[in-house]
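User: Teach me something about this protein's shape.
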Amino acid sequence: SIASCIASTVNLSLTTEAPKVAPNEEFTVAANFDIPQGAYIYGKTPGETGLPTKLEWILPQGFEKISEIWQAPEEKTEEGLKALIYKGNMQVLAKFKAGKDFSKPQDIILKASWLKCSGMCMPESKTAEIKIE
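Assistant: First, the predicted structure itself:
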């Protein structure tokens, strides 16, 4: 049914262990993908089939992204082609450095897009944000 198809979109949320950040301080934000049961999304590198999951971070003035660590994907064979996928809960850890003129609070925004597959594949995109103080 269409309703169950809509209800089972991938949820995206941002969390951090450092709600309080000082100017020039490094901190990590986790992008949490909650993938519905029976569905999967492709990795940053999808393999030989599928589309990559893309993350676009929108940072406050003066902030910089230092690194982005993706969980290791699962390997799946689709019609003889290798795909790199995620199921269940997946996290990407992004490390940032606060600007030297950081004045609180500021929002970090993530625009993410992916291909969600469960039988058929549908492109999805979501925006999540987190306040850094």
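Now, about its shape. The beta strands are 11-16, 26-34, 40-47, 54-58, 64-70, 74-78, 81-86, 89-97, 106-118, 120-132. The longest strand covers residues 106-118. If you'd like, I can walk through any region in more detail.
User: That's plenty for now, thanks!
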